[in-house]
């Protein structure tokens, strides 16, 4: 019996991974056809009797070595208004700074890599009257 449990676990895990990969692919396809309002990361669509909410995601990674050099270029006073000691950005302050300091922005942008994240999809069944 113990072997059967392990075997079932392995098979189920493989099936889940395959279905998860397919869900990820479908979410990307849905996000690709969604119309996102200007400056927004959330869209809404109705299809097949469901009201869908699609959220775009981005993953940002910061190169710590580049940020060390950025700290030298900007100086500690300015750098630590934008980042904490773990070199994590203070998002609102940093965005405002980048928008208003194009001469210093390249030092910061060199440390940042932005890649698309997996879209999140939620849905609710719609009744025959078209209500959620």
**Got a strand count?**
5
Average pLDDT, rounded to a whole number, is 89
Series of secondary-structure elements, N-terminal to C-terminal: HEEEHHHHEE
Radius of gyration: 22 Å
Principal-axis shape equals: flat
| Low confidence ranges | none
The percent of residues in helical segments reads 40-55%
Q: Keywords for this structure?
A:
alpha+beta, three-stranded antiparallel β-sheet, 2 domains, 132 residues, two-stranded antiparallel sheet
Question: What report would you give on this structure?
Answer:
With 132 residues, the protein is of the alpha+beta class. The chain has two domains: 2-55 and 118-125, no CATH class; 64-110, no CATH class. The chain has helices at 2-33, 64-74, 76-82, 91-100, 105-109; strands spanning 42-47, 50-55, 58-62, 112-116, 120-125. The strands form two sheets. Strands 1-2-5 form a three-stranded antiparallel β-sheet, covered by helices on one side. Strands 3-4 form a two-stranded antiparallel ribbon. Strand 1 and strand 2 (50-55) form a beta hairpin. Helix 2 packs across helix 3 (76-82). The chain starts with a helix and ends in a 7-residue tail after the last strand. The model has no long low-confidence stretch (mean pLDDT 89).
Detail the topology: elements first, then pairings.
Blueprint: H1 2-33, E1 42-47, E2 50-55, E3 58-62, H2 64-74, H3 76-82, H4 91-100, H5 105-109, E4 112-116, E5 120-125
Antiparallel strand pairs: 1-2, 2-5, 3-4
Helix pairs in contact: 2-3
Describe, in short, the structure shown.
The protein has helices at about 1-35, 65-75, 75-80, 90-100, 105-110; strands spanning about 40-45, 50-55, 60, 110-115, 120-125.
């Amino acid at each position: 019996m113990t072997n059967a449990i392990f075997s079932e676990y392995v098979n189920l895990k493989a099936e889940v991974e395959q279905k998860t990969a397919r869900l990820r692919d479908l979410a990307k396809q849905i996000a690709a056809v969604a119309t996102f309002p200007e400056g927004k990361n959330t869209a809404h669509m109705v299809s097949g009797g469901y009201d869908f909410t699609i959220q775009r995601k981005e993953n940002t990674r910061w190169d710590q070595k580049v940020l060390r050099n950025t700290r030298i270029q900007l100086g500690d006073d300015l750098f630590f208004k934008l980042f904490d000691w773990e070199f994590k950005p203070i998002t609102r302050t940093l965005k405002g700074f980048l928008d208003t300091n194009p001469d210093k922005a390249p030092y910061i942008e060199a440390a940042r890599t932005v890649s698309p994240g997996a879209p999140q999809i939620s849905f609710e069944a719609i009744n025959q009257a078209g209500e959620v």
